[in-house]
Hints:
Helix content is 42%, strand content 12%. By secondary structure, it is α+β, with helices and mostly antiparallel strands.
Amino acid sequence: MADGFEDAFMGVVEQYNKLPVAVYDKNKCIEILINQDMTQEEAEEYFNFNIIGAWMGERTPMYFTPKKEVEQLFELFEESADPPLFCSFQQQRHNGNDSLGPAINNAMKPNK
């Protein structure tokens, strides 16, 4: 468990031939930091640098961002001339590359 983030714990993720890894709600983690007297900006910066940026080996926790927020980010970056690297799989999907797998492609389709 990540120290101090017990209330943000969602469960575990599993993958073939790998150890289970804890998953935490990113937004709840940031709320916990805000409740420790940080501003929103300070909490997000601390979270991104010290939590997301920490490698603790094979069992490093993962942090969940809801699909709706991810879709909003992609909409913002589609308008940008210089989207960040984490958008690359979305760009490949837009370019007709289905090698990313149907699960990712279907998960990223906007709700109609």
